[in-house]
Design a protein that fits this description.
The chain has about 90 residues and is mainly β. The chain has one domain: Lipid/polyisoprenoid-binding, YceI-like (Lipocalin). About 5% of the residues lie in helices and about 60% in strands. The longest helix is centred in the last third of the chain and has 5 residues. It comes from hydrothermal vent metagenome. InterPro entries: Lipid/polyisoprenoid-bd_YceI, TTHA0802/YceI-like_sf. This is Lipid/polyisoprenoid-binding YceI-like domain-containing protein.
């Protein structure tokens, strides 16, 4: 189980009334495997009509979250640094 809780630090740079793509900064906390770490990343917000799409890609080092594979197939088949992608789509209500 994992959980990310954060906020967009430059949300005022996004014009939700005009179609476009906006680069934003996100600060928050990622909890994975019972360990919580501060995260600062970038995300892309796309405004298109009545939809708002938020996409981001995080790089997480598994050892930072006490996830270690010492032997066997997981130790050779799973990367030590993983990519976590997120895409959320919201529809604006009138």
């Amino acid at each position: 189980k994992s959980k990310f809780k954060g906020q967009i630090t430059n949300i005022t740079d996004v014009n939700f009334d005009k179609d476009g793509t906006y680069n934003v900064s996100v600060d928050g906390e990622m909890t994975l495997h019972g360990v919580t770490k501060a995260i600062s990343e970038t995300a892309i917000i796309t405004v298109k009509g009545n939809k708002v799409i938020i996409e981001t890609k995080l790089k997480l080092t598994l050892a930072d979250y006490n996830i270690n594979f010492k032997k066997g197939k997981p130790s050779t088949n799973i990367a030590k640094i993983i990519d976590v992608t997120s895409k959320s789509e919201y529809t604006k209500e009138d």
